Amino acid sequence: MRVILAQPRGFCAGVERAVEIVELAIRKYGPPVYVRHEIVHNKRVVEKLRSIGARFVDELDEIPDGAITVFSAHGVAQKVADDAGLRDLPVIDATCPLVAKVHREGQRYAEQGYDVILIGHEGHPEVEGTRGRIPGGVHLVSSVDDVDRLRVRDPAKVSYITQTTLSVDDTRVIIDKLKQRFPQVAGPDVRDICYATQNRQQAVHLLAQHVGVILVVGSPNSSNSNRLREIAAEMGIASYLIDTADDINPAWFANVDAVGVTAGASAPEELVQEVLNRLGQITPVEIENLEGVEENVRFKLPEMLWDVAGSPYGRMGRPQPRESERNSAPTPAE
Ligand code: SF4
């Protein structure tokens, strides 16, 4: 059986940075380091960090006074940041700079008197963080039907922002509906959907043209991983979201010549390698790499960790811009 690997796949710059922040904080301050929510949505990543001294909690009141506190890559509401400030908790913020950018965008719209619509999924931590950063709150929409139900103060003063990990195609449909209802709506089109999400979705579109089954390595609560599986399914390809190689069912590959493998932005490459090993146990495999975008985005670490990291960019090093890099909108130095 041929096994074709998507390019790009797996860790994005925001996840790489968040994981490194926790590791460096443990190295600098010693365990335990408290992390509010899963640092990123991946079971293996969370288990590994737990094994070196990270303590994952749901709320700040589970954190002892004075303990080093990390906010996850998904970002937090202003109230959470304020509460941490009131308790003088030493906070290291691992919010992805691209999520923080969406916060600022929404805040600007709110300051200018717009009703702000957030396109995203109810209950996702990024959505909770974003809606809690925008004064006056947001209207959350997840579907075209939600757009029909919207009630705004002034239809001529409406804006939207989006969660970073949505399906580009589904989001366009919702944006088109918003434009129909509110012809003057202001918004970023799909530019809030981050470079990593867009690149991984584009790679799955390509992969689906070559294979009969697609395996997406990612945890069930990972938004961007779910979108990858859905995109493959929408293209008529049997697709499965697997947390680890143990989730693989050999029956999926009956009568299949080629299987595609990709990984969500929070899934480490070691899980992909374990999947390849497992496939090799099921049947002899030939592994190929699909051509695709080479990513070169890096985000600076928080300054308080530069001493232990050895450089502002940590183990990933300073970015070297490449002509070929699509979607180079994020500012690496942010
Ligand atoms: S998926 Fe995008 S927004 Fe989310 S952490 Fe990665 S780079 Fe940041």
Automatic annotation (TrEMBL):
Positions annotated to bind isopentenyl diphosphate: 41, 74, 124, 222-224, 266
Active site (catalytic residues): 126
Residue numbers binding [4Fe-4S] cluster: 12, 96, 194
Keywords (A to Z) from UniProt: 4Fe-4S, Iron, Iron-sulfur, Isoprene biosynthesis, Metal-binding, Oxidoreductase
GO biological process: dimethylallyl diphosphate biosynthetic process; isopentenyl diphosphate biosynthetic process, methylerythritol 4-phosphate pathway; terpenoid biosynthetic process
KW Metal-binding (keyword) present: yes
Residues at which dimethylallyl diphosphate binds: 41, 74, 124, 222-224, 266
Cofactor: [4Fe-4S] cluster
Binding site for (2E)-4-hydroxy-3-methylbut-2-enyl diphosphate: 41, 74, 124, 164, 222-224, 266
Keyword Oxidoreductase set for record: yes
Superkingdom classification of source: Bacteria
Bound cofactor: record note: Binds 1 [4Fe-4S] cluster per subunit.
Annotated EC: 1.17.7.4
Spans annotated as Disordered: 312-334
Top-level EC class: oxidoreductase
Role noted for this protein: Catalyzes the conversion of 1-hydroxy-2-methyl-2-(E)-butenyl 4-diphosphate (HMBPP) into a mixture of isopentenyl diphosphate (IPP) and dimethylallyl diphosphate (DMAPP). Acts in the terminal step of the DOXP/MEP pathway for isoprenoid precursor biosynthesis.
PANTHER family in the record: 4-HYDROXY-3-METHYLBUT-2-ENYL DIPHOSPHATE REDUCTASE
Family: Belongs to the IspH family.
Name of the protein described by the UniProt record: 4-hydroxy-3-methylbut-2-enyl diphosphate reductase
Protein species of origin: Hypericibacter adhaerens
Gene that produces this protein: ispH
